[in-house]
Structures are given as C-alpha cells and as structure tokens.
Amino acid sequence: MSELLTADRIDEIGNLGSKSPDPAALVAELVGAVDEGRVADPDDIGFALLVAADILEQAGDLADALTLATRAVAEQPDDNAYARGVRGGLLLRLGRTDEGMAELTALRPLLETNPKSMYLIDELVESGHGDTAMEWLTGALDAILERTRTQQHESEDAQDEAAAMIYGLAQQRHDLREEQGLPHDEYDNLADRLRAASDHALGALDDGPATLLFWPQAEFTALLLRWPALADSYPATWDEHRAQIERALVEASGLGGADLGVVVGTAAGLAAFAEPTGSDPTSEETLDEYADSLDEAGVTAWPPGRNDTCWCGSGAKYKKCCLPRSRD
Ligand SMILES: [Zn+2]
Ligand SMILES: [Zn+2]
C-alpha cells in the first residue's frame, strides 16, 4: 500500500474502531502510514496515532496504546495537549498514578481557558479519579467566577470566553455529580439555570424572544401557599427569586442570547392554565408551557435602562434594584 492516509480515512477508522473484526489491521494501517510518511496532512500524524492508541486500549492493550500516545506527544510538540491528556489517562489506568497525575496536572490550567479541555475530566473519571475530577471542575469554576467578579474591565471577547467556560464546566460538574447521586448544590443550580437560559436563547432564534417566568412578590407568596411542592423548584425568598432571574439573564446575554425578557406569572393564571388539561401545576413542563403561553400576551424586555424602572416591578430604578443583584 502506498496511498496517502487522509483525515477522512482516519475518521472512518476511528468510527469503526474496535467494532471491526480485525482491529489490528486498522492499527497497522494507521501506524504504517505514519512510519512511511504517508499521512496526507502532516498535522494529522498525532491524530492518526491517537486513533490507533484508542483502538488498542479498547482491545485491552494499554501498554502498546501508551507507546503510541507517547509517540503522538513527541510528533507534534507545539500542539500536544490532547495527546498528553490521553497519555496521562493511560498512565493512570496502567496504575502509574504519579506519572499520570503529573501529566494531567500540568494541563490543569487549560480548564480555566480552553472550552475543549474537558477531555482532562473524562480521563480522570475513566481512571477512577472522579473525586479529583470534581475538585478540578469546582476549582476552575471558582477561579473563573472570581476573575469575572474582580476584573470589571475585561474585553467583551474575554467575557464571552469566560461565559462559555462557566457553561461547560458547570454542565460537566452537574452531570458528574448527578451520576454520583449527589444532591444539587449552588453550582448545580447555576448549571440548570444556564442550561435553561441557553435553551431559551437558542429557541429564540426561531421562536421570538427568550423569556423567563417571573413571579411578582405577591404572586410568589400566593404560588408557594397554594402549591407548597413548588418550594423545591424555587428559592426560599422572593429576593432570591428575582436575583436568580437577573443572573440567568446576565448569563444568557453573555452566551449571546438576544431578545431576552421576562414574562409575569400569576397564581390564578397558572391554575386556570393547568386546570382544563388536568396537568400538574407544579411540574417543570407545565410551568414551561405556561411561560410560553404568556409569551404572546407580552414580554417585559430585558435589560431595562439603568435609570429606568426595574423589570421586577419594585418601582425602583434598575441600577438600584436588580442590576446589582446579579453580582452577589
Ligand atoms: Zn439539575
Ligand atoms: Zn428589581
């Protein structure tokens, strides 16, 4: 064989992987092309070796997989973070814990800057180091949130980047904790709000404005008196409720959401909405559908001008009311 190994063919082999009746032949095809200088794009050499390493690992041959991953690291010294991550994971799974941890720890700062660095977490989890993975996710979230709090003058690009990182880290952490059967903590609630805000923001591309369901103070009280089960879905106080909405909107705008706003719910309105269909007014689904039904009646656009009346209905100026709430 003297033909060139293209990126498409490497992809194809990657998809076949160990499901192929002859995984060894696929490994030989990849490594042969690298050995003989037949990789069509030299930038794909590391990729070819890592695909081969993955097939070997799935076949249970961790030692040879490590050899190929090590070679991938050496082949492309300027762009080898992913290869080092794979190598680190393999070392861990081979029981060479100190070496593996050293390799991954050197890459740990990427979790604060590179949205594609979540493979580090996967490597840790797959190697039975879920606790370390959690610690790194929490640490990265702490660091980025601290940075966004203290550096008010970051460029818009830097802010978008931070928002994207926060989103990815919070989702990964949320799902990992859920797998471990852990209850929601503050960052998990953030993850849920961000996901909802992002769904809304994405939906807004064809559905009109992205809106969140907001309960004015009296309605918030009436709601929880009437359906105590909703205490699980909402914070303990109305102040926290409007702060959550403000933060979700700030985050949605950071993710590029446009046409943001709130729709105003009422306890009587929710009851009337749920009754005819017999749906449970306390279910997430009913609340979403109720919010959608209010969309048509009118959306309070967000954000208001700094000196305009706040969206929450307090009567105070936005800059003195909910604007500062997003920062605590
Ligand atoms: Zn959740
Ligand atoms: Zn307000």
UniProtKB/TrEMBL annotation:
Organism field: Micromonospora ureilytica
Protein name (database record): Tetratricopeptide (TPR) repeat protein
Pfam families in the record: SEC-C (PF02810)
